[in-house]
Amino acid sequence: MKAVQYRAIGAAPEVVTVPDPEPGPGQVLLKVTAAGVCHSDIAVMSWPEENFPYELPLTLGHEGVGTVEAVGEGVTGLETGTSVAVYGPWGCGTCVKCAQGKENYCLRAAELDINPPGLGRPGAIAEYLLVDDPRHLVPIGDLDPVRTVPLTDAGLTPYHAIKRSLPRLGAGSTAVVIGTGGLGHVGIQLLRAMTSARVVALDVSEEKLALAREVGAHETVLSDEKAAGRVREITGGLGAQAVFDFVGADSTLATAAACAAVESDLALIGIAGGTMPIGFGQPAYEVSVNSSYWGSRSELFEVIELARTGVLDVHTETFSLDEAPRAYELLHEGKINGRAVILPNG
Ligand code: NAD
Ligand code: ZN
Ligand code: ZN
Question: What family is it from (predicted)?
């Protein structure tokens, strides 16, 4: 089959032919109908050799939707042809976090060398994807694979972050979204669907800010050193009750900290590697800062249920498998509006 692989440190991803995977006992083979392209892959492909955590070559893609092609020995209850979304942060399935569905925080994944598809294990940007266990699949029925596949990460990750801040986001509150790309433009819609907060979106690109307004942001602000002042103005000087930083650079964290109201949440989701100073009264009193990784298995069911109600309008740009390296280039250049989605089977 054809697959898109990161093959050597610093090299661009390549379309290659690899052996067709076959499902072993307990595994499920999917024919991939759609695979999302996440900015995290660009971060992975910039890591130096010394601390590169995965074996190369690596088939990319940690957002996947497909149809069940074949099941391994012992797998029951999954019919061939069923359309499913893949829960990506695989865990051991037996520890207490996994028992709670929080496989993203599996206690034994490192010890047992369990990795997500596309982030250690062969990923979804290929004609076929091997899934280690049927519990990592969520049936999506007749939902469109292209518009659904980003929900497995670009939807699930903001959903989890927003859900933990719901108590802050009652009527009269303000939520700030920094970075309105793949994750951010879904985050804005989730905030509109799940809360009554006023949503203020920040980005460096006018095109992304236009998308932010289109998907429901009440206000948009260019992300520069004046942005926090604008958010303070919009909120009558008080600041925002929750700030979601989908960039995570020093500069955006500085903005996030300056936007955060007394008794607010500051969620760090982007992995640009920035840090922020913490001191007495800085950020404001009783601000809770947290970083989070992906979401739980049951939260993916919830996001898919929300999509079924028709309130999410995920923007996508589609590419063939052969065009996937170009999709990564465009994402790197900031030229994808919404999420790039690869169609490995035409
Ligand atoms: P993306 O490229 O689609 O979107 C990033 C957006 O940020 C773009 O619209 C870009 O214009 C904007 N941006 C860049 N610099 C900015 C600045 N200084 N101020 C405001 N906006 C700025 O990327 P994505 O796929 O949505 O991923 C966003 C981030 O989240 C990445 O760092 C990614 O690695 C990370 N991520 C984290 C998790 C997690 O579990 N924590 C999961 C998925 C992705
Ligand atoms: Zn991702
Ligand atoms: Zn576990």
Answer: Belongs to the zinc-containing alcohol dehydrogenase family.
